Amino acid sequence: MTIFSSKINGLTKSEQRILQFIEENPIGVETMTIQYLANQCHTSTATVSRLAKKLGFSHFNKFKLELFNTRYNELYDAQFTSGDSVEQLVMKLANSNMTSIQETLSLINIEELKYVVELIRKATTIYLFGVGTSGTVCSDFYYKLNRLGKNCIYTQDSHIQTASIVSASKDDIAIGISYSGTTKEVLVPLQFAASHSLKTIAITGVGTSPIVTICDFIFRIPRHEQELRVGAIDSRNNSMFLTDLLYLAMIQDDVSQLKSIFETTKELTNLLK
């Protein structure tokens, strides 16, 4: 990475040494004080300030801000590669998470979110469907709902989970999570639920897919993962962001009651220590 050195001539050896250090430690420099950087480069703070001005910045902090922005833009849409350093992985993952969550936010219909929250509140039983990475989101949501005292059904065995919907009633709801929108283990029980007048909700990637034609309410997550998905990180985080939103919106009106539940839970789990 060479952000600045190719754009300026006439640098002293000390200034060139500072630039080389920055290129080798771009993330660390963004959090360093001018004194600390000077010490690391065996030079003075005056030399660091002079370099910043030669590069067109009024002071060192503006230089650091530009360094951060350059790194951010450089990695904004970057793919993970086998040659990435740990520092690059840190930046790429952080930027990927921030970007995908912002995109997910832009896809949310707040009024629809509020309506679905009420459906979950009033439901007698909540059925969750998801396998693989989506299954980890279901497991997390299952734990949260049960902690609130909601009757929720989910198991990682897709055959058992599919069979469970047979006993559902019209007062229940079914929630399916599938990034592709084509997962048979999610589609089959949702189709059954829809055919028996249950309200159905999907969390899936943008675009057309079978799950979109089945469900009453659709929450979208962005589709920008590569074909080779690195642990399906973005889709998992985005899906869990939506289930966390549903969870937090549910507990807003029941803070006092939930406080008692959480305190009792804590007392009980403390017995296991």
Automatic annotation (TrEMBL):
The keyword RNA-binding does not apply. Residues 116-256 form the SIS domain. One of its GO terms (biological process) is carbohydrate derivative metabolic process. GO terms for molecular function: carbohydrate derivative binding; DNA binding; DNA-binding transcription factor activity. Keywords: DNA-binding, Transcription, Transcription regulation. It comes from the Bacteria. Residues 1-74 form the HTH rpiR-type domain. PANTHER family: GLUCOKINASE, HTH-TYPE TRANSCRIPTIONAL REGULATOR HEXR-RELATED. This is Transcriptional regulator protein.
